[in-house]
Design a protein that fits this description.
Elements (H helix, E strand, L loop, with lengths): L3 E5 L2 E3 L2 H4 L5 E4 L4 E4 L8 E2 L25 E6 L5 E7 L2
Parallel strand pairs: 1-7
Antiparallel strand pairs: 1-2, 2-5, 3-4, 3-6, 6-7
């Protein structure tokens, strides 16, 4: 597992190599999977991912990636292997 990331009401703060990548990034949280298609960099944070996307699996009506609960995120640039990060959640 790599460094710790941070999520707050503004979104998930991304490592520079993911935020600046414009060839597509897949972000997996315990609750959802977001496929950011090629064509533009995401930037330093992803606003669609919020603290509500993290927590115990039982808290979710439907968990897409239960293996990441309660506090991990998986980031993958298209054509590369995924990396798993621990997430510090600001609730």
């Amino acid at each position: 597992m790599s460094d710790t990331l941070h999520v707050d009401d503004a979104g998930l703060w991304l490592p520079e190599e993911y935020g600046n990548h414009d060839q597509g990034v897949v972000i997996r949280t315990p609750r959802a999977t977001i496929d950011h298609k090629p064509g533009g960099a995401i930037g330093p944070q992803h606003g669609m991912i919020r603290p509500r996307d993290f927590g115990d699996e039982e808290e979710f009506h439907e968990s897409r990636n239960p293996e990441l609960a309660p506090d991990r995120v998986k980031l993958k640039r298209y054509g590369e292997d995924p990396e798993t990060f621990r997430v510090e959640v600001d609730r």
